[in-house]
Amino acid sequence: MAHLRTSRCLLIIDNMVASAISDFFEGDIASFLQVLEPGPFIFDEIRDLLAQQLARLTLLEREIMDWLASKREPVPLSELQANFIRPIAAGELLQALTSLQRRSFIEKVTAGFAQQPVVMEYVKYVKTV
Q: 105: closest CA among 69, 129, 59?
C-alpha cells in the first residue's frame, strides 16, 4: 500500500515537472535544466510530497539517499556497502535498495545505483537547511 502511495506521489511530481517544462520553457528540457544548474529549484508542492515520502524511510534508507545525493553519480553496490560507518550486512543493504527502487527514489543503471535529479536536489537541499 505504501508503495502505491509513493508511486502515485512520484507520478504527480513527474506531471508537475512536465507541466512546468511545457508552460514555462515551451517544452525545452535543456532550458529547464539550465535553471537547475545554479542550485536546487523545487516547486513547493513537490517539496511537500518529497518531505512526506522521505519521512517514512528507515535510517539505512536515509543514509543511502544521503550518500547517493552527495556522490551525484551512479554508485556501485560494493562502494555503497564500503562507505558506511557501521557494518551493514549485504542482505540488509539489498533490502533497503530494493525498497528505495520500488518507491522510485533510486534506479539501477549500468554503473550502479543513482537518484532521479529532482530527488537528488531535494535530498541535498534538506541537508543544507
A: 69
